[in-house]
């Protein structure tokens, strides 16, 4: 064999060596393209997501990408995606509510990446102007087969915050995930009529004698009784000048009558902090944080010359609201008087012990008594 033939055989052997197909195992993924006369390959990577997973206060449009992939598949129902199962990614995935996005990238020759999961927590925050987003995003969901304009119930599929601008601050309604909203009568209702606002003080009436409104908030459907399966949290802005003060909380369906503590989680009061009165409620829809201004009553002076017969002696001087026996103090004797008359309902006038003159002797009168208690 001459030298030329030997060189040809040697070159042939060398070419055969480098022409052999080589497959590499995963390197931050899998490298599986054949190597011929030069090094070529595609790194198999799991999908990435933008924005990154996290907690947000609004819906997110999530963009998926995986360099060199032929397709990306994903699921939002907890199932594990494959290159033959799950939704095929084509445009940004809109995440309206809290959910886990599971993804996989697919490559030629039936190669695929490992599954990548992205957890998005959406605590939806809306304002009165875009409350409809709660329905269109299914943050408030109607039962199957029902419509938003006539539904027996709504269910919160995530935590919801409704922010209402109030004077120099912000009032907030928080509805916990899983809360079911129904009418107190059990009738169907139009969910598109849901509203939130700060009522002007002039629109609220018949709260009782001496009651001063420090802050108010409307959430629900005006003039319709709604109830919540889980207490909602309300934060009513009343101003920092009231910090540390205890206010009485009441609610009304209409805002003009029927003010009550029913539907306000006990003790139906709040201690103002950072200018906000925070309390919980199970019914809607007008809420007020109030205090009662003591009413001064001038009583007659008994004559030193006697005269007249019988009757009860009332000492002279001012008498505070709640001083039902007119002894100049609001104390245990007045409490006993209130208890004796508890539950009394009057028609055509106030009942004895009815301190707010609403015709009933109830917890509202008890609150007035406590506010004016003499130490």
UniProtKB/TrEMBL annotation:
This is Chitobiase/beta-hexosaminidase C-terminal domain-containing protein. CDD domains: Dockerin_II (cd14254). Keywords: Signal. One of its GO terms (biological process) is polysaccharide catabolic process. Residues 51-116 form the GH29D-like beta-sandwich domain. The keyword Signal applies. SUPFAM superfamilies: Type I dockerin domain. Residues 1-24 form the signal peptide. It comes from Candidatus Sungiibacteriota bacterium.
């Amino acid at each position: 064999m001459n030298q030329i033939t030997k060189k040809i055989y040697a070159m042939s052997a060398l070419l055969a060596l480098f022409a052999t197909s080589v497959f590499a195992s995963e390197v931050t993924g899998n490298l599986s393209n054949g190597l011929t006369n030069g090094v070529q390959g595609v790194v198999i990577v799991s999908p990435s997501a933008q924005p990154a997973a996290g907690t947000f206060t609004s819906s997110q449009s999530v963009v998926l990408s995986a360099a060199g992939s032929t397709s990306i598949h994903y699921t939002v129902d907890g199932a594990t995606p494959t290159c033959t199962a799950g939704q095929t990614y084509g445009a940004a995935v809109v995440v309206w509510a809290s959910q886990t996005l599971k993804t996989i990238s697919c490559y030629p020759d039936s190669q695929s990446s490992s599954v990548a999961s992205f957890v998005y927590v959406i605590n939806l925050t809306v304002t009165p102007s875009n409350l409809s987003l709660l329905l269109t995003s299914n943050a408030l969901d109607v039962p199957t087969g029902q419509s938003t304009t006539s539904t027996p119930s709504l269910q919160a599929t995530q935590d919801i915050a409704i922010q209402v601008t109030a004077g120099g601050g912000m009032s907030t309604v928080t509805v916990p995930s899983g809360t079911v909203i129904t009418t107190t009568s059990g009738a169907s209702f139009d969910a598109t009529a849901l509203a939130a606002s700060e009522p002007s003080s002039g629109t609220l009436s018949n709260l009782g004698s001496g009651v001063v409104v420090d802050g108010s908030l409307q959430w629900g459907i005006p003039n319709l009784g709604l109830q919540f399966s889980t207490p909602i949290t309300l934060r009513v802005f009343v101003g920092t000048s009231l910090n540390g003060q205890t206010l009485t909380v009441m609610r009304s369906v209409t805002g003009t009558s029927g003010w009550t503590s029913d539907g306000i989680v006990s003790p139906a009061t709040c201690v103002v902090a950072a200018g906000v009165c925070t309390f919980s409620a199970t019914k809607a829809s007008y809420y007020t944080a109030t205090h009662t201004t003591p009413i001064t009553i001038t009583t007659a002076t008994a004559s030193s010359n006697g005269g007249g017969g019988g009757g009860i002696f009332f000492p002279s001087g001012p008498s505070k609201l709640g001083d039902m026996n007119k002894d100049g103090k609001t104390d245990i004797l007045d409490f006993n008087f209130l208890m004796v008359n508890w539950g009394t309902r009057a028609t055509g006038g106030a009942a004895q012990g009815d301190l707010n003159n609403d015709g009933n002797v109830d917890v509202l009168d008890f609150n007035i008594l406590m506010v004016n208690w003499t130490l």
